[in-house]
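Hey all, sorry for the wall of text incoming. These are the three entities for the joint prediction.
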Amino acid sequence: MNPKHSRSLIALSTTALALPGIANADAPPTQNKVSYKISNYTEDDLSRREAPFGDLDRYDIDVHQFQLISPVGRNFSLQVDANYESLTGASPWFTSTGLDGEPIVSLSGASGIRDKRSELSVGTRYYLINGSIGGNIGYSEEDDYRATYFGLSGERHFNDEMTTVSLGFSYSSDDIFPTDAELFNRVVSEDKSSTSAVLSISQVINQVSTFQVALSLTEQSGFLSDPYKLRDVRPQDKTQIALTNSYRRFFVAADASLHVNYRFYHDDFGISSQTFDVAWFQNLSNSLQLVPTVRYYSQSAADFFTNVDDFLKPLSEYQSSDYRLAAFGAYSGGLSLIADLGAWTAVLTAERYVANEAYSAYAVSQPSTALVRYNRISLGFDYSF
Amino acid sequence: MNPSLKRFSINAMGGYCEFQIFDESRINAKRIVRQLTTEVRRLEQKYSRYRSNSLVTAINYSAGDKLGIKIDSETRSLFDHALTCFEQSNGLFDITAGALSRIWDFRTAQVPAQAQIDALLPRIGFNRLSWRNSRLLMPAGMEIDFGGIVKEYAADAVAKLGRRLGVNHGLVNLGGDFAVIGAQPDNQPWTVGVADPKQRDRLMAKIDLLYGGLASSGDYERCFIHKGKRYSHIVNPKTGWPCDGLRAVSVAANLCTVAGSMATIAMLKDEQAALGWLQESGLPFAAMTGEERITGEGLNEQQPESSL
Amino acid sequence: MRTTRTIGLLLLTTVILTACTQVRPWERGILARQEMAWEADPLESLLNDHIFFSKEASSGGNSAAGGGCGCN
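and here's what came out:
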């Protein structure tokens, strides 16, 4: 076609492209899709050097994810998500100093933890000519934790659908009721809430690439400490901010797509973090796709992080030896194989994650002992009908 | 699994319709065609002027109603496109002009009296439609007709649906309006032959389509000769008299809807103005002039692949 | 340091936005492919978010979060 289109042609194209049967974006799915994914997540055991006493086993989790997306009428879609996790293992209970002065960690309970988590979420979306709005409600339950949440979101296209702005809001009300509370002198019942809002702007750059910036703000308040730790005192409020940049580019010659994401995060516990991840979706044939992924993550320590619990400190002073509040870095890499079998799609994924204070991009004044290393294997199926 | 071409035909939208799909299995192709057919039937049912229970009939029946009639978003978008057609043709392409083609009936082959035409003209004019929120208020005596828009829109909508159902290579033909679902395997274009309006078994032109659509407009079958002069069924809504321009035109564009609007407007313009206007658009087209000369642009060029 | 980074980021964003070329909807075949989606595999993204949420301090991304869990 002539690169210089006449004014009439552009005018006619503009209104024709707004016709709902033609408009590119925002139509409910045409088919029902059921997805199921089973994953096994296994953390490496601690070494005897890190935990001289007690259990060495850490978490071993099986995750079952189920999702149904279904068109309802001409303008609505329905989405149901159900998750079930069963977990065995132990989590850090307290940290102390070993004979050589190095911090050591003790894992909870000789018999370890057994827990399961069930979650159900139902959502719907209404599709408009130039955007969509949606909402969902959900419920998650564990032996010692319950979360009830809802979310609302909307998106709208501007600028001949070159730009998409979306806004999301979610609220979760959580109850915490630790097991064996009396036996171990834990808190009996606590609660917390979190409210978050996300604004994102996506922009089509050209025929093969898009870019997205997203800003998310989360406010948590209530009991934010770890009820299972012997000594874990954290502030009652936490404000988190995250800025995410995402880029997608397709390479026609290679028949592959590149995904790059970078996130900067900061919260008022004093933690900053950076996440950088890259994925390469390589089409091998009409029905096979290979996807290597690499991710690097690093965070700074919370202001009140300590790698040795100080039982002499007054209870009013903040302290936590939770390894998730330590400064560390983590590398992970994965490989997925996706087979498209017509109405069926199968995905097999393997991933390895290693956290280490030596990988940290931030200063590590107190290295944590209990940093995780894990393997994950997933097998997923989609069926459209 | 080597996909082969499967063809399915139905009668809809007042003509012969055909879906051509490359698919591994005939069962899967049939399942897809069933959904495509449902969409064609839905649009046919909704916008047919000849069905007593269609929306268009209800709209026409509402003429003169002070409360107007509630219009859904899809139909509103069609009105928006009809407005663009009206504006871009300086009022020549007017969906409210349907009544005129009835008095210029090629079957009776009668030239109506000027008084008859003058009586109709005040009941025509897209700009006389008004809107109150989502309600359309149509003055008494007016009627609308989405001819030249809806069949083309249906072809695009069905092609789009085909893509969403996973068809990579396919072509939709709704009574001579074509929309590409996807190019033939190995990015080969679909070659659409445009019949010579004078001799239906001969081709006036061949147009290669990689994407988008092709639509045609012509008066050869629906015109009459009276005292040596040709009277087309395509009537200028401003004068009430038949147009005296091109005999037939086929246009290829990014969408069948756009091609259809371009072709219809070209038929309404004077011959020279129409050819100039089509050339200016840069779209490939084939036209037959009043002297039955065949002309066109960009027919032999490969439709350029969108520059990557 | 943080200011420079923010300015750099804004600058980068501006450059990218102004470098955009008009892509008409019928030229969006590639952008519409599943592997070009922000989340190419929704269950995979949900699972990863869940794991990283429970093993790292950071959370928040490009979509509103769901509910919490006892894992964090």
